[in-house]
Amino acid sequence: MGKFNIAVLPGDGIGPEVVNEAIGVLNTVGSKFNHEFILKEGAIGGCAIDTFGEPLPAKTLDLCKSCDAVLLGAVGGYKWDNLPGDKRPEAGLLGIRAGLGLYANLRPAVIYSALKDASPLRSDIVKDGIDIMVVRELTGGMYFGEKGRVDAGDMGQAAYDTEKYTTFEVERIARLAFEAAMKRKKRLTSVDKANVLESSRLWREVVVKVAKDYPEVELNHMYVDNAAMQLVRNPMQFDVIVTSNMFGDILSDEASMITGSIGMLPSASLGQGSLGLYEPIHGSAPDIAGQDKANPIATILSVGMMLKYSFGLEEESNAIERAVENVLNSGFRTADIASQDSKVVGTKEMGKLIKEEIEKI
Ligand code: NAD
């Protein structure tokens, strides 16, 4: 029996609805497998602005630091759209990732066989399903490098952003990606732009060095422009992809889009140690908030990732994934993934079906 403390940050819009279903699933796993999950709720995003005047109150960050893992719904909404950048709900997301020292973002892009028709790619390209894990560096590179504007004389202004990586930063993300590959099909693609960028040449050197510690993993390198093409030409060739912050930002969105269902995709942000932040990749979907229409599966699968990556509960995590697959195979869908002959259900009913399926496993 395990005992785990989880900070729960439902956030805004559909956040509380999907988090509620994920908690239901967590409790079902807890009683079935005899674990105790102690849930402690905190505020982030728009609701935190309304109550505490800031998107990430210090007490929320302290709560997260005191727990074993964090479950986050989503933040943002029309009400806060006109606030300045650093006061907006989304500033809370950057703040919590930095505050918890989370330097790696793991995003699986999976096409379940029951949902193949949802992919915008031709059926012959996705016929055997897709199962890719994108590992993105989260706290370095151009988004955090030196930036500024200078006077460029007759040419107006010049603006610059600096792509910079240290050996240390590349080594730790590479190691995490090799470890992820070891738990999967043992294939790793490192994506860079080493034909042009010095920072990419260092990236590649370090990845090659780390590879020596993982002789079982088959490593290849790909330029980012080619990787963007290969993802739509032949996505089945990929197992784990590791890349920098900016390239990962773009490629992980591309990989999610080819699955065709934003409401299905979970994510994990990890750092030193086992503390991780788990959240769906979608936003707060204010257009459907409060209507029992949101697909809770991305958040439920995020809990599955939490069990695997922060708590080492592989069997329990697999039970969640299998339950989701079984429910989809039985023809149940929320509206966002429904086709003509689906049995369309709401948020709560989808959560209930998945819980019942876990009981049966
Ligand atoms: P979004 O992901 O919220 O919604 C995009 C579209 O997908 C909408 O039509 C929405 O109804 C649909 N959708 C999203 N999740 C769904 C789900 N689980 N089930 C069914 N349909 C779903 O993106 P957006 O509309 O660009 O942004 C809305 C708000 O969310 C903004 O304030 C934005 O800043 C914020 N946002 C937050 C996060 C986050 O919290 N991590 C991420 C992205 C956007």
TrEMBL record:
A cellular component term, taken from the record's GO annotations: cytosol
Residues bound to substrate: R97, R107, R136, D225
Enzyme class: oxidoreductase
UniProt binding sites for NAD(+): 77-90, 283-295
Domain Isopropylmalate dehydrogenase-like: 5-354
Database matches in InterPro entries: IsoCit/isopropylmalate_DH_CS (IPR019818), IsoPropMal-DH-like_dom (IPR024084), Isopropylmalate_DH (IPR004429)
Positions marked as site (Important for catalysis): Y143, K193
UniProt name for this protein: 3-isopropylmalate dehydrogenase
Species in which this protein is naturally found: Acetivibrio clariflavus (strain DSM 19732 / NBRC 101661 / EBR45) (Clostridium clariflavum)
Phylogenetic classification of the source organism: Bacteria, Bacillati, Bacillota, Clostridia, Eubacteriales
